[in-house]
């Protein structure tokens, strides 16, 4: 072979391997690990010294930690909708105008609209294998129990294994109910009214002032019995009808069992990774932890310093460790972007009747889940990509969980949709140090469908202004949450409106303890004017869309109910029995 021909062959080989390497960088594997209700004060890498999270901390040490990473909403359903689409949830109709801001029933008709574009859809179009393992909480069906219009498989995921709705206290026997307020309003109060009416009428009858017909007496008793009967049916059937485990379109466990649930989800994730070592993949591991009801395998019970909550956090950390080990074993570590976050802040009001704390820590920050104080929206944000991102980097700039959408879409080689507003911003320039300031000059914080606050980070300024149009009324007054109602609500007498808006400089007062005034801030009125103008301009970009969380879409519809048997009276099955008993070796 001539020297010139050898040189040509060498050049061709270099070009070939260079293109392979370039493709590996431009189309990395993506692993998203999302906790449910984990506070920013819970992981060790954010300052916790009593919870053991070595694997979460390993992601931070090997990559980038955001200290001002923000959820687009402080509630599960709208936050996850925003995360998957890169858009404020109000744009997709995934923001409620009522007290109930999330889906509670598997047979609701609302959900993430089919015309919304998720990052899973775009990555799938680029040849990625895609899987969602864990919690979905964005709807299932529209018109029939098998149309699956809102199902993960209709939103770009090739594979789904997990909970189509969410984990609730009602799903675990002995853990109480989330419907306490509703039961008080629709059961106890009507029963009291019926009881008082009966006693009053009977007293009048005895005094001879009023003759009580027998049919009135029995009608009242029948009404009371009906109310009690409906409550008994609701409490009996809620768990099997709503707490279900699915594999793709099939119900495989009804009601779901908590036995080794995290281990089963982890095992499913590992199988997916093993099947896709030769092709780019997107794995969205959406943990059930640490939303109540709390649970953990026997190997983790009683091992933490923070009771059931700590046990659940440490079990989740173990699971993340298994994923990282699998990447190392398969030599995929350098080809994989790993992102860890939570859907919103810790649930402050999660305290049992015995006084046990079942919610997490939001660190120094005020408030928590369901409100837009920093504790409700400032979430863990960790990104690792060895060889591309500098280990141990800390970024204090405001970023959003919506930013992951354009970031991974561009890394996969896909094009961002140009027929809609994308609110997220590509993080790569910030992650790689090519820019020092976030692309978000303004961020808008919604409480359900109501614009609650505006955040402004002026260009070439260290100040980060945050203006509240209203704030929740904490109960008790000196507390850090809305304990009587279990979560804070967004309108009516549950909020206090502010005119002028309540203004903070988050860069100097991250605890939001000292609102500014015209006396303490010289540019007070000018700052508020700019922020109001930004809010008005943002509002003009919104289009009218169907409300997916209207009462009509939220309520249970029997014709949409998933059932693994032919009889709705016995929706019970367990096709997971073999895998359920497999524990974990610590």
From TrEMBL:
The chain crosses the membrane at residues 182-204, 216-238. One of its GO terms (cellular component) is endoplasmic reticulum. GO terms for molecular function: arylsulfatase activity; metal ion binding. Its cofactor is Ca(2+). Pfam families: Sulfatase, Sulfatase_C. Keywords: Calcium, Hydrolase, Membrane, Metal-binding, Signal, Transmembrane, Transmembrane helix. PROSITE patterns: SULFATASE_1 (PS00523), SULFATASE_2 (PS00149). Residues 28-414 form the Sulfatase N-terminal domain. Residues 1-22 form the signal peptide. Belongs to the sulfatase family. PANTHER family: ARYLSULFATASE FAMILY MEMBER, STERYL-SULFATASE. This is Steryl-sulfatase isoform X3. It comes from Phascolarctos cinereus (Koala). The lineage of its organism: Eukaryota, Metazoa, Chordata, Craniata, Vertebrata.
